[in-house]
Automatic annotation (TrEMBL):
Domain of life: Eukaryota
Gene3D superfamilies named among the record's database cross-references: 1.20.1280.50, Ribonuclease Inhibitor (3.80.10.10)
F-box domain sequence ranges: 28-75
The protein's name in its UniProt record: F-box domain-containing protein
Gene source species: Oryza sativa subsp. indica (Rice)
One GO location term (cellular component): SCF ubiquitin ligase complex
Any one biological process term the GO annotation gives: SCF-dependent proteasomal ubiquitin-dependent protein catabolic process
InterPro entries attached to this UniProt entry: F-box_dom, Leu-rich_rpt_Cys-con_subtyp, LRR_dom_sf
One Pfam family of this chain: F-box
């Protein structure tokens, strides 16, 4: 606990230490003196599940009010028999809007979906997440109020079941399909759901049998879609490396409108010029958030096109690794990241609303900054031209103390995350101490930063949060009182933890 009453977290523990937030009460009020509306408001503000369980045991009134206010629940495989357990839960919590069920791996045949358990016991259900091993999804069509469906690790999804959901769930606006590796007829159900045009959010993650070319069959559905995510794990998706329907100079499959798309994520796929999902980058006029993580084939031309077409771009995340790239002039090839300062300069010139930038690099040797085609000058130009509030740099070997000096002049910068930035030292941290708006700082595997550098920033800035992970020259003792919330770990997560799901 910090002496100034701040939050302090060590490892996975965080201690709240602000006595002024919990003043002693001069008189005790009985629960019977409080109206139901006030008790309901108190319960709404409690988010921790164990706390909700505890408060429901205080009195019968709180037990009833907590049950009425509960809007979401997660059901695990420890509840058996499942139907009886769900019936009891539904009686206890009549107003559930979000249900997450994880019965993955169970082999018994209780046919939960065939018994219409969801439509009978969850009449107002809007958000459903399934991990169960059951292909009889057609019964979900009876959930007329269902707005969001997430299928996670479902072993076999039938075409008829998906079509039934599309036909019956008229209010469905969000569909997530995650780690469903045996989907049959994916292009057909995508075509049907696309023709209905009700989806606003489509997320497909780590599904081996769905290719980027299948998703082009979504057709008219692209017109209303606002968020789209298509990603694989770190092993690149080589399924259908070329569009089997593509014909040069006859792009009938690519003639669709997606001008409502605001949020696009493409990760770990192989693209070709003008073929596959890469075509989205030329069509999204309303784009606000873009994530391109290890997309082979992306070039400066794509980023320049985005900067020209997407005047509302607010956030961009680029993850790159070394590829064989042609040397200007065609004299040979060299191993480097594909995007150059031309991309950064284009964003600096036209993306005047850009607030969040994330640049990540993998497999580039610290001793060879030239393996990254971005330069410090290009990044500084971007920082000076756009109102950047949140900057993340991972593995940016080109970024050093001179870059930190330029960073200290960024008028809008509030959050800075430096990960594996090995050229940043205490000198750079002293520059950062002059940053006018800095509130949140993360240092991960920055081995040249010591206690002195961190303390200088902490003393100069009133930090809201400070996170230090795997920085061997920074001690936990130096972080006491350094920020309102401090997180310290000796090690840090794997580089690709974000791609596990």
């Amino acid at each position: 606990m910090a002496s100034d009453g701040s939050f302090f977290r060590y490892g996975e523990r965080q201690i709240a230490a602000k006595p002024e937030d919990c003043p002693a009460m001069s008189s005790m009020l009985s629960l019977e003196d409080l109206p139901d509306a006030l008790l309901a408001e108190i319960v709404k503000r409690i988010t921790n599940t164990s706390d909700l369980k505890s408060i429901s045991l205080v009195s019968k009134r709180l037990y009833t009010i907590e049950a009425e206010q509960r809007s979401s629940i997660r059901v695990g495989s420890d509840l058996c028999p499942a139907i009886d357990a769900l019936s009891a839960l539904c009686s206890r919590f009549p107003n559930l809007l979000e249900v997450e069920m994880d019965y993955s791996g169970w082999k018994f045949h209780w046919n939960l979906l065939e018994k219409h358990i969801f439509s009978l016991h969850f009449p107002v259900l809007r958000d459903l997440t399934l991990y169960i091993d059951d292909i009889r999804m057609g019964c979900l069509a009876s959930c007329k109020n269902l707005m969001s469906l997430r299928l996670n690790s479902v072993s076999a999804i039938g075409l008829c079941g998906l079509l039934s959901v599309a036909v019956g769930c008229k209010n469905l606006t969000s569909l997530h399909i995650i780690k469903c590796n045996h989907i049959v007829g994916s292009d057909k159900w995508l075509e049907y759901i696309g023709s209905a045009g009700s989806l606003e959010e489509l997320v497909v993650k780590n599904c081996k049998r769905i290719s980027q070319y299948d998703l082009l069959k979504f057709g008219p559905g692209w017109m209303k879609l606002k968020k789209f995510e298509f990603k694989f794990k770190r092993s690149f998706n080589t399924y259908e490396p070329r569009d089997p329907c593509y014909v040069d100079n006859y792009q009938y499959g690519y003639d669709f409108c997606c001008e409502s798309l605001r949020d696009v994520t493409l990760a770990t796929i192989v693209t070709k010029p003008e073929i596959g999902l890469r075509c989205l980058l030329t069509k999204c006029k309303a784009l606000e958030r873009l994530c391109l993580h290890y997309v082979i084939g992306i070039s400066d031309h794509d980023i320049i096109t985005i900067s020209q077409n997407c005047s509302n771009l607010r956030s961009i995340s680029l993850s790159q690794e070394m590829l064989l790239c042609e040397i200007p002039g065609g004299t040979g090839v060299m191993a480097r990241t594909p995007l150059t300062d031309d991309s950064l300069n284009a964003l600096a010139l036209r993306s005047h609303m850009l607030e969040a930038v994330e640049l990540m690099f993998y497999g580039c040797a610290p001793d060879w900054p030239s393996e990254i085609a971005f330069t410090q000058d290009g990044l500084v130009t971007l920082l000076q031209s756009c109102p950047i509030r949140h900057l993340v740099l991972r593995g940016a070997n080109f970024f050093d103390d001179e870059g930190m000096e330029a960073l200290s002049c960024a008028q809008f910068l509030e959050t800075l995350e430096l990960m594996q930035c090995v050229a940043v030292t205490d000198v750079g941290m002293r520059f950062l101490a002059q940053s006018p708006c800095l509130k949140n700082l993360t240092l991960q595997m920055c081995y040249e930063v010591t206690d002195d550098g961190v303390c200088e920033v902490a003393h100069a800035r009133d930090l809201e949060s400070l996170t230090v992970e795997s920085c061997n020259q920074i001690s936990v003792e130096a972080l006491h009182g350094a920020a309102k919330s401090v997180h310290y770990k000796v090690d840090c997560p794997s580089y690709y933890d974000r791609y596990k799901d």
